[in-house]
């Protein structure tokens, strides 16, 4: 007794036919997906427009106008910029923060780098304790930190005055004209060494352990490991920390503005460009000139930060 199959064998043409490509999503599906993505980023875009784009646009608008006794707020084009570029007070403040940047930033980043390398090494005992201690000043509010150091710097009170009384001289004068920038740099360094140390330390922790093992097999010493493995791996972190430090230097405001109450004859209203813009706006009601200072400093900071980033990325590619 024979049985016949109820299923027909597939034909040769059907077996060899290529598989049908998957159907692509239609236009409506793509548009729906795009709208979903836009809905996710919409809150950020709204905040970005309100807190960044709108203030910048309004500052540019203010910088192109001038409040006049006759005619009110009149359009003057780039006259405010021309007046700013011949303003000696602006150039004095800009030169001061540039000097501050050139001297203070390398010292601060160098100390942060040494601290990160020391904490990352296996030779330092209680590395977690030292990491917290070095980072702790960054957690102190800037106003509190400046007030604390202002008390230490005081010529008639505080630690500096006590040391001078003990020595019977006035050798320590943090508020002297020739030392005031150094005193401010010391405060900023104390505040931000821990922050930059954490950036470097985080970059060190992602270095593959295979590199250390290969270096150990090759007989590389600690200094060779630092120069051959750790420092090249830190190049990107150093560029980021440098850019942040450049921005912070050109935005120097809190420290000199708070110390001005203790040294009013030394720290002027135009001690830094940010202080100059602040005092032009809130004390002099010269909003157009203040906006011009802000725009110029913003463009200058962006250019310098871009150059540093470009040079750092080129070295990293090499």
- Helix fraction? over 70%
Query: N-to-C SSE series?
Result: HHEEHHHHHHHHHHHH
CA distance, first residue to last residue: 82 Å
Structural class: mainly alpha
Q: What is the overall number of helices?
A: 14
How are the SSEs ordered, and which strands pair?
Layout: H1 12-16, H2 27-63, E1 65-68, E2 72-75, H3 79-85, H4 88-120, H5 127-139, H6 142-153, H7 158-167, H8 180-205, H9 209-217, H10 222-233, H11 235-250, H12 254-259, H13 273-282, H14 287-317
Antiparallel strand pairs: 1-2
Helix pairs in contact: 2-14, 4-5, 4-8, 4-11, 5-8, 11-14, 13-14
Outline:
The protein has 318 residues and is an all-alpha fold.
Structure overview:
- It is a single chain.
- With 318 residues, the protein is mostly helical.
- It is 71% helix and 3% strand.
- The protein has helices spanning 12-16, 27-63, 79-85, 88-120, 127-139, 142-153, 158-167, 180-205, 209-217, 222-233, 235-250, 254-259, 273-282, 287-317, and strands at residues 65-68, 72-75.
- It has a two-stranded antiparallel sheet with strand order 1-2.
- The longest helix has 37 residues, at 27-63.
- The protein is flat, with a radius of gyration of 30 Å.
- Residues 1-8 have low confidence and may be disordered.
């Amino acid at each position: 007794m024979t049985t016949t199959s109820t299923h027909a064998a597939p034909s040769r043409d059907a077996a060899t036919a290529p598989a049908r490509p998957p159907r692509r999503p239609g236009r409506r599906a793509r548009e729906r997906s795009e709208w979903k993505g836009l809905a996710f980023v919409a809150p950020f875009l709204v905040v970005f427009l309100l807190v960044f784009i709108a203030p910048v646009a309004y500052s540019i608008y203010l910088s192109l106008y001038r409040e006049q006794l006759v005619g009110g707020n009149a359009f003057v084009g780039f006259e405010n910029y021309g007046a700013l570029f011949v303003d000696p007070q602006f150039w004095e403040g800009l030169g001061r923060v540039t000097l501050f940047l050139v001297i203070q930033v390398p010292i601060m980043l160098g100390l942060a780098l040494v601290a990160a390398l020391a904490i990352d090494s296996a030779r330092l005992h209680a590395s977690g304790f030292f990491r917290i201690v070095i980072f702790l000043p960054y957690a102190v509010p800037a106003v509190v930190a400046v007030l604390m150091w202002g008390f230490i710097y005081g010529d008639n009170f505080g630690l500096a005055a006590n040391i001078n009384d003990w020595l019977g001289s006035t050798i320590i004068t943090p508020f002297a004209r020739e030392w005031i920038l150094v005193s401010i740099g010391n405060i900023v360094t104390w505040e931000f060494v821990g922050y930059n140390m954490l950036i470097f330390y985080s970059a060190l922790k992602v270095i593959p352990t295979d590199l250390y093992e290969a270096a150990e097999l090759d007989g590389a010493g600690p200094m060779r490991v630092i120069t051959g493995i750790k420092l090249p791996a830190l190049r990107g972190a150093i560029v980021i920390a440098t850019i942040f430090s450049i921005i912070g230097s050109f935005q120097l405001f809190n420290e000199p503005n708070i110390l001005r109450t203790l040294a009013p004859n030394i720290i002027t209203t135009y001690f830094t460009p940010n202080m100059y813009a602040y005092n032009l706006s809130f004390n002099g009601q010269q909003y157009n000139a203040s906006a011009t200072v802000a725009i110029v400093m913003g463009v200058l900071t962006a250019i310098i930060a871009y150059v540093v980033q470009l040079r750092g990325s080129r070295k990293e590619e090499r």
